[in-house]
Design goal:
With 459 residues, the protein is of the alpha/beta class. The strands form five sheets. It has a five-stranded parallel beta sheet, sandwiched between helices. Strands 9-10-13-8-14 form a five-stranded parallel beta sheet. Helix 4 links the parallel strand 4 and strand 5. The radius of gyration is 30 Å and the shape is globular. The N and C termini lie far apart (66 Å).
């Protein structure tokens, strides 16, 4: 630990000076307080590592200070100084959370010994904190699980951007966890105790999106029978997450651009300009550069949103994370549904590892919950998993043998194309050819499914 912060609390300046001189060898950064109220203010503002606290203070005694300190989120170690013969007070201080105590008149070597032990405890606490962070880094980032190099890059970027107010654009296919990433960035930010408001820009027609985002005054349009706050007002001092921002109309895009530039907006039907003290995180599954070229997205808004870009890889590109995800969610759903499912047989694991996962982690989670509910025993079998995970019939041994002479990229393209054709054909047949229902089941947009069907020649 480099330069820990020590707060000395005593109403006598001479006593504070004596403690400071006695502990000079520990190379603390030192702050002082002359009464209990000042001590509490400095503890809240400065977050000291160690506090030496005299019990006899004017107005608010040291025990009262100690009780309030332990209501805070970040609690320092507290060494209490009591009067000679005040053992009952010392015991009470320990009950209230004091690390240790010394009695006046104290021996300097005794004080140094107690402080030395406190420093060892601080070092151990710091090492444990670093160990927890390292364990978290190895298996995931908060609720987001992953051990692959691609996910480690995502976690590193999330950690870097969390403590700033910088605008972040999150890219990823449907089901990869874009909202989870946005929520975790907010949770680790300085705005964490303020609102996190989400808005799915693809879920509402254009004539309602502006009202949802900016609010409206009574009578602003037909049906506006009362005043309503929009998402930006509700997110004041917090974070707003604009999901699927690539589906936002050009007209609404211009108003979002104004908020990013000026931090101001008006409600629909109103003329009062309001401040927008919000952090904006956004996400899309679309290629926004292609949308710009097609005239569907503003380039100036894109460059405002994409100050930092986070790309979440699809599950098929990080299938090494599947065992970690399976282990975690088997535990979650076993507890949720009061089942005892402790693992998965090797053939079932292999089935999951070679599957393409068009719905990404969301699809995997749904399949595991279904399997846990229906499982007959403590180990999931291949038969407990849905048929959609089975290797398509076109993937015969001869088909796979034919790929062996191809370069990796060509072989991958051919096998993915063959898989997608077989998979989408089956899913369409299950829905009697209904594209809308199939797209909803797969967790993708209808237009995206139509594009894939045309490319694969499926009618």
């Amino acid at each position: 630990m480099e330069k820990p912060l020590l707060l000395i609390v005593d109403d006598e300046p001479a006593s504070r000076y004596g403690i400071r001189k006695a502990l000079a060898q520990f190379r603390f950064s030192v702050q002082e307080a002359g009464d209990g109220k000042e001590a509490l203010d400095k503890i809240q503002q400065l977050l000291p590592d160690l506090v030496i606290l005299d019990v006899n203070l004017p107005e608010m005694d040291g025990l009262s200070v100690l009780s309030q300190v332990h209501r805070e989120n970040s609690v320092p170690l507290v060494i209490v100084i009591t009067a000679y013969g005040s053992e009952k007070i010392a015991v009470e201080a320990m009950k209230r959370g004091a690390y240790d105590y010394v009695s006046k008149p104290y021996d300097i070597d005794e004080l140094r010994l107690v402080v030395s032990r406190a420093m060892e405890s601080l070092h151990l606490k710091q090492e444990n904190l670093e160990l927890r962070k390292e364990l978290e880094r190895r298996s995931g980032f908060g609720p987001i699980l992953g051990q692959t190099v691609a996910m480690r890059k995502v976690f590193d970027m999330m950690e870097k951007v969390s403590l700033s107010d910088i605008t972040v654009l999150i890219h990823g296919e449907s089901g990869t966890g874009k909202e989870l990433v946005a929520r975790e960035i907010h949770r680790r930010s300085s705005r964490h105790n303020k609102p996190f408001i989400t808005m799915n820009c693809a879920a509402l027609p254009e004539n309602l999106i502006e009202s949802e985002l900016f609010g409206h005054e009574r009578g602003a349009f037909t049906g506006a029978v009362r005043q309503r706050k929009g998402k930006f007002e509700l997110a004041h001092e917090g974070t707003i997450f604009l999901d699927e921002i690539g589906d936002m109309s050009l007209n609404t895009q211009s108003k979002i651009l104004r908020i990013l530039q000026e931090r101001k907006f008006e409600r629909l039907g109103g003329d009062e300009t309001r401040e927008a003290d919000v952090r904006i995180l956004s996400a899309t599954h679309k290629d926004l550069m292609a949308e710009i070229q097609n005239g569907n997205f503003r380039s100036d808004l894109y460059y405002r949103l994409q100050v930092i870009d986070i790309e979440i890889p699809p599950l098929r590109e990080r299938n090494e994370d599947i065992p970690l995800l399976v282990e975690h969610y088997l535990g979650v759903f076993s507890e949720k549904h009061n089942k005892k499912v402790e693992g998965m047989e090797p053939e079932a694991v292999r089935l999951m590892l070679r599957y393409h996962w068009p719905g990404n982690v969301r699809q995997l989670v749904n399949i595991l919950e279904r399997a846990v509910v229906l499982a007959a025993g403590p180990v999931l079998r291949k038969e407990d998993l849905p048929n959609e995970l089975e290797l398509p019939s076109g993937f015969t041994d001869s088909f796979l043998d034919d790929l062996m002479h191809l370069p990796f990229k060509q072989a991958k393209e051919k096998i993915v194309s063959s898989f997608m054709k077989e998979y989408l054909t089956r899913r369409l047949n299950d829905n009697d050819g209904n594209i809308s229902h199939t797209a909803a089941e797969l967790g993708i947009r209808r237009q995206s499914l139509q594009t894939m069907l045309r490319r694969l020649g499926i009618k």
